[in-house]
Design goal:
Bound molecules: adenosine-5'-triphosphate, magnesium ion
Strand order of the largest sheet: 2-3-4-1-5
Radius of gyration: 23 Å
Helix content: 40-55%
Number of helices: 16
Structural class: alpha/beta
Length: 395
């Protein structure tokens, strides 16, 4: 089929041609927006799931929904070893700019920007950041609000002021945080505290986080009340109907169809993981000569799709591991079945090492986002089918 018209979109955060199987999440978010807009209490939201299941894409979609409702929206991606001050400041700056045109009192906006600037310029040690960094806000920084240097106090004040601006306009603010598991411990606890305070005050502000499956555990170890503070949504593989829709709807718009046997073969290959659905769909489209696409087109395309995944999806991640970490990953692969968590003690036995001597490798693998600790004493891949990939590689 014409590669120029190939609709599929494997990529990180790449908007899919058809957002399949997420209607329940979108509907639920709609309810949350309406409830907060009418002053009712609602919990903030946390989306969790493995690599490539579509967390970023869904986060962007929820953001569009909030924008469509007239809300101010802000989004940033957490990075390891990076404080949230600057990314949150830039994000909220955007959100409030979206609202400024509808606000009746420009002075209130200026006042907020002054607080925002003060917040942005405070560093974690409590001092002022050198003027090396310009937040691009051309009002003078305020004093005495959101600038104590204690991130928890400052964030509560900043978000309270931001939500007050939104309330003046009759809407709310949604703050989206991607890769939330990469936040530092102080920042996690500040965000939890801010959500806690604001929800008690009935402020129209919601945080929507996305991250790897251990994010809920991280939040509860930070603040014991976080289980009641957030609503957790597990973003999972697509079921058969949704995976078929993800393939067929975009093809249909190009006048192309699949045979049932082709869809069977594609589901067997992609296993419902959205990234894989896009990846196999893309290669299969290029391999097929005519519509409908058949199972033998899929069979022809499969090795090429697999080698693309081996390089781009799996290999690029494996490359980031050190030799000691690779040894750890390989032991996990030998022990794990279908990506299920394995006991860390089992990995140690397999490698003939004391468990404590493996902690550094395990911890850095967690920091790199390649594995996560499902529960105490167990460990799992964040990347679907990673075990299968490693087992297929020569050691
Ligand atoms: N609901 C969906 N239907 C069809 N395709 C989807 C869906 N969600 C995501 N995709 C596709 O899956 C791929 C991965 O999506 P995305 O980057 O959002 O995943 P992620 O969970 O954020 O991954 P990571 O943890 O690596 O950041 C993209 O190519 C996207 O187009
Ligand atoms: Mg993502």
């Amino acid at each position: 089929m014409d590669p120029v018209r190939n609709p599929y979109a494997p990529g990180a955060g790449q908007r899919p041609p058809e957002l399949a199987g997420r209607d329940a999440e979108l509907a639920q978010f709609h309810v949350v927006l309406e409830r907060i807009s009418s002053g009712r209490p609602e919990r903030s939201l946390i989306l969790t799931g493995l690599r490539g299941v579509g967390k970023t894409v869904l986060l962007n979609q929820l953001r569009s929904a909030a924008i469509g409702r007239g809300w101010g929206t802000a989004k940033f991606e957490a990075r390891p070893e990076q404080s949230v001050r600057r990314p949150i400041s830039s994000a909220l700056h955007m959100a409030v700019r979206e609202l400024a045109g509808r606000h009746r009192d420009p002075e209130r906006i200026e006042e907020f920007l002054g607080v925002l600037k003060a917040f942005a310029l405070r560093d974690s040690a409590g001092g002022r950041l050198r003027d090396r960094w310009q937040p691009g806000i051309d009002v003078p920084a305020m004093h005495g609000r959101a600038d104590s240097g204690d991130i928890e106090i400052d964030l509560v004040e900043l978000l309270a002021d931001a939500s007050a601006v939104a309330r003046d306009v009759g809407v709310g603010i949604a703050l989206f945080v991607d890769e939330m598991q990469d936040l530092g411990a102080d920042d996690v606890s500040a965000i939890c505290a801010a959500c806690h305070e604001l929800s008690q005050a009935g402020a129209p502000l919601i945080v929507v986080g996305a991250g790897l499956p251990h994010l809920p555990a991280l939040l509860s170890s930070s603040k014991s009340y976080s289980e009641r503070l957030f609503r957790y949504m597990r973003i999972d593989r697509l079921d058969r109907a949704a995976a078929d829709l993800a393939l067929r709807a975009p093809a249909d718009r190009e006048g192309v169809d699949f045979t049932t046997a082709a869809l069977d073969a594609l589901y067997a290959a992609a296993d419902g993981y959205p990234y894989f659905v896009q990846a196999y769909g893309k290669v299969t489209w290029d391999a097929a000569a005519t519509s409908p696409i058949t199972a033998s087109d899929v069979a022809v395309a499969r090795p090429a799709a697999e080698s693309e995944l081996a390089v781009g999806f799996f290999g690029s991640r494996y490359e980031r591991a050190t030799p000691a970490e690779r040894e750890y990953l390989r032991a996990m692969a030998d022990l794990s079945e279908q990506g299920a968590p394995v006991a860390t003690a089992g990995v140690a036995t397999m490698l003939g090492r004391r468990p404590a001597s493996l902690s550094p490798a395990r911890d850095t693998l967690i920091k790199k986002g390649l594995v996560y600790s499902a529960e105490r004493g167990s460990i799992a891949f964040t990347v679907p089918h990673f075990g299968r990939y490693l087992r297929s590689q020569p050691s």
